[in-house]
Amino acid sequence: MSAPTPLLDAQGVNALLETAFPGVQQTGPQVLEVDPGRVRLRLPYRDGLLRPGGVISGPTLMSLADTAAYALVLAHIGDQLMAVTSQLNMSFLRGAKPGDIHAEAEMLRLGRRMTVCDVRIWTESPDRLAAQANVTYALPR
After folding, report:
1. Distance in angstroms (rounded) separating the CA atoms of residues 109 and 132
2. What pTM was computed for the model?
3. What are phi and psi of 130, to 5 degrees?
4. Which residues lie closer than 8 Å to 116 by C-beta, 6 or more apart?
5. What's residue 1's pLDDT?
6. β-strand partners of 51
7. Rounded to whole angstroms, how far apart are CA atoms 27 and 132?
């Protein structure tokens, strides 16, 4: 099965995210790349992302996973801001060391009513994942 063709590039998805969440472009994740069935994001590091123990907090990683899946959906269905998370299952694999946080989301299925995405998150290297999430989005009718 071939990957679906995106309708928007990274700049277009970033513009939609800014429309949906004003101000996100200053401190939030940035979409770096959009490819068929895939997006890559980066969340710039700041001290406020750390939890006690000196690693990136779980809520930060979960938020990035959800944002990456949302960006992937928007890239492939266009200006449909009412797509909503219906399920997010997160596995924390190791502590995410301080640094920019990277996420890559891959579309597993794009249906008429739902989209299923796999999201991988890291700070050190894509070979040393900090977390992995399976995210399902319900699409507007």
Report:
1. 17
2. 0.95
3. -90, -30
4. 107, 108, 109, 134, 135, 136
5. 61
6. 55
7. 22
DSSP state letters, 26-65: HHS-EEEEEETTEEEEEE---GGGEETTTEE-HHHHHHHH
Contact 119, 105 (CB under 8 A): yes
Average pLDDT over residues 85-94: 98
Q: Going from the N-terminus, what domains does the chain have, and what CATH number goes with each?
A: 10-138 (3.10.129.10)
Between strands 101-110 and 38-43, the pairing is antiparallel
* CA dihedral sign of residues 102, 45, 55, 58: negative
For residue range 17-73, list pLDDT tens digits in order. Answer: 999 999 887 889 999 999 999 999 999 999 899 999 999 999 999 999 999 999 999
CB burial of residue 137 (10 Å; 0-12, 13-18, 19+): buried
Average pLDDT over residues 114-137: 97
